Each structure stands twice: as structure tokens, then as C-alpha cells.
Automatic annotation (TrEMBL):
It comes from the Bacteria. The lineage of its organism: Bacteria, Bacillati, Actinomycetota, Actinomycetes, Kitasatosporales. It comes from Streptomyces lomondensis. InterPro entries: MoCF_Sase_C (IPR005302), MOSC_domain (IPR052716), Pyrv_Knase-like_insert_dom_sf (IPR011037). PROSITE patterns: MOSC. SUPFAM superfamilies: PK beta-barrel domain-like. Residues 18-168 form the MOSC domain. This is MOSC domain-containing protein.
Length: 180
């Protein structure tokens, strides 16, 4: 399973959206250098309030660019970085990956998939009604989260638009992604 990076984004300040960059640097065990969510322990405000010593399983947020076209069919206009992701991808089924998948990106970066992004009401503040498009239910009534996946940096490196992404699945049995 493989794909490509279409955009990289980061923001040193708390903000829902993240500006696109020419590249991002991923120090091992930290996340995106200079990004407000980088760190060994949790950085998302709600999680810090609960327990600031918990490990940061949300160091790098990836989202599939195909989602933008899907929500575009309902009139929403979303561009890379606008949903707060650090890496926008194309051609790889991020939501179908099991927990523990390694994503080899560019020359040296390796991310380990930790789970699904748990989107919040800020998505509706960005564009009203968008939250219902990125969190829904399947035919069986199960909740489906489409707002990307979260990961931690296992091996550092620089990531740029155009970089290849190769997924290395963990040894089975696979664990389906859950919210982190």
C-alpha cells in the first residue's frame, strides 16, 4: 500500500487551521518541529486538562486529500491544512490501516499509526455542518470517523509535498483503528 504527500502544514500557535509549508521536520518521539502539538506528552488542550503527563499519541495528524472531494460534493470547500492536519496524503487508505502500521515517508521519516482523529465541534466553527460529514454512521449504524489518523514519530526526517509514502503493516492479528 502506497501513496504520496500532497501538502505539509504546521502552526506554532493554537489555531484550528495550519498554514502549508515547503517542508516539515519530524524529530523522533516529538512530532512536527515548531508545531504547537509537538511533544512527548499530550499537547491538545482538553487532554492536558485531564492529565498532562499522558504520552502524546497525537504527534502527527494525517488526512487523505480524497476527503476534500467527498465533502465538496455537499458544497464544503476544504484545502490542505484547513482541518489542522500536518500531512495531507493521496492514494493511500489511511482509515483502513490497522493500529501499529508504520508509514515510511520520504527519505527517512517513519511514523507509527496510533489511531483515529477524534474530531470536535471546532470543525463546525470552521464550516457549519462539516462535522456531520466527517463523523457519520455506516449502513450498520456504526460510528465512522473520517477526519484522518494520528501517529507518533519513530524515526525522524524531513517531509515534503511529493514524497512517497509506503505502509508497512504490523504482524497480525490486526487491531482496527480507534479514537485517540
Amino acid at each position: 500500500m502506497s501513496g504520496r504527500v500532497t501538502a505539509v502544514s504546521s502552526n506554532g500557535e493554537y489555531s484550528f487551521t495550519k498554514p502549508n509549508r515547503d517542508s516539515i521536520t519530524l524529530p523522533a518521539g516529538v512530532g512536527v518541529e515548531g508545531d504547537v502539538h509537538a511533544g512527548v506528552t499530550v499537547k491538545h488542550r482538553s487532554r492536558v486538562a485531564q492529565d498532562p503527563t499522558r504520552p502524546n499519541l497525537r504527534q502527527v495528524h494525517l488526512i487523505h486529500e480524497e476527503l476534500f472531494a467527498e465533502v465538496g460534493e455537499d458544497g464544503f470547500q476544504v484545502a490542505p491544512g484547513e482541518l489542522g492536519e500536518n500531512i495531507t496524503t493521496r492514494g493511500i487508505d489511511l482509515l483502513g490501516l490497522p493500529t501499529g502500521t508504520l508509514l515510511r515517508i520520504g527519505d527517512s521519516a517513519v511514523l507509527e499509526v496510533t489511531g483515529l482523529r477524534n474530531p470536535c465541534i471546532q470543525i463546525d466553527a470552521f464550516q457549519e455542518g462539516l462535522l456531520k460529514r466527517v463523523v457519520g454512521r455506516d449502513e450498520a449504524g456504526n460510528v465512522v470517523h473520517k477526519a484522518g489518523i494520528m501517529s507518533v514519530v519513530r524515526e525522524g526526517g524531513v517531509v515534503r509535498p511529493g514524497d512517497a509514502i509506503a505502509a508497512e503493516l504490523p504482524a497480525g492479528p490486526y487491531r482496527a483503528l480507534e479514537r485517540v
